[in-house]
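Form 7-S
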Amino acid sequence: MICVSLGRTRHKMVVAEHRALAERGAELVELRLDWLSHLPDVGRLIENRPTPVIITCRRAEDRGRWRGTEEQRQTLLRSAIVSGVEYVDLEEDVARTIPRYGKTKRIVSYHNFDETPVDLQQIHNRLARLDPDIIKIVTMANSPGDITRMLQLVKHSDKPTAGFCMGEIGLPSRILCGRYGSPLTYCTFNADRELAPGQIQFEEMRDLYHYDRIGLDTQVFGVVGDPIAHSMSPLVHNIALQKAGIDAVYIPFRIPQDTLARSLNDLDWLGIRGFSVTIPHKEAAASIAIRESPTVHTIGAANTLIRTPDGQWESENTDYDAILQSVLAGLGVESDDASILAGRKVILLGAGGAARSAAVAMSAHGALVTIASRTRKRAETLADEIGCQHCGWENRGAGEPDILINTTPVGMHPNVNDTPFNANWLNENMLVFDTVYNPEQTLLIKHARERNCKVVTGIEMFVRQAARQFELFTSQPCPSEEMRASLRAAISPIGKPY
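Output:
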């Protein structure tokens, strides 16, 4: 079950937002008494409550906001129990002194905001001796391996155990804990009001990840990167999986740089079927696969990992075809005939993973590619590896290219007033392809339209590469239009499409 944590400084706001959560479909709400600016009136908060509640009051040493005495706090917890609330959350030391009474269920909890201790089982054993209905263990994840250890604890516990990890690294455990028997996961009222590190919004957990539908037979896919919180891949893939009627979930995994091989090994117990791969892991993904596609071999980087029947990884790079097909579509080519690129002059902005795919794709079909990067050495290195030209960033506007491809983040939200290529360098004979997709109408694209250039937006590339990944993951056709529509809705002022 999803529990929504609610913390406000005023009683009337707690009551109002509790009603609002019930109207939004919440089934269980945690009332954080320690957030109230005045001594809590438990009776007022629980009278005519629209959903069952968990009463929680955290001390400062437990990273809470309680400013009263410990005697006052325990009196509040006891009064909540006497009043018959559905659940009360008791820390390990308090659980020893507050006995069971009536129908109120006891959540005996342990929190560690610094790490996931090595002695999780011993901690669990201690809590199990304190007459819990639910054991709650929440720790900070400092590596993906912490996720696995926590979920293994949940699965093998003979007592109902709500166990998951905090922080961005720990987010997958919040989504998957119910799969292994956790009776609860915790979410926040809205995205701007996080009560614990790594909490996500209620509707995101329910409507995007479909937490309550995830079972042991649910296939798990994901995206790995660092950072990863900004990624739109979970949005488009989960919506596509739902549209296709596939019992699967797609989750973001933050994996620190230079730890991909070790981290995937640590996550092996979860049985993840495939990963999208983004910065900074694309080259490492190519190196750990036992089989690589010809495209990966040529580029030296992979953006997709697919688990083989024997549990190994094979790699693919869907950026290559996505870039190639986006450019051909922009030029009005209906077929896969890329001969139209032969002899075309291409200015490629950037020297990262997407630039590498673009350089190989264009060069392989006879285009004359020149790479310009804000870091000159990276442009030189990539150009030497691909066998094309390079120029200084300050000279990127020289000449009259036929095709301009921007793979830098210049112009990406929130820096929407920036452009990597001055408007006066554009002309109506050019194709302008900006791989930035948020916003779709970047300043570069706006200037290109004003100059009557052909344009291709980043949404085209993003959807094309994601759709191919979907097909590799599921062996089914991808509902690309749903992907495209959901991405456009997500970056619009209206908000997320779930």
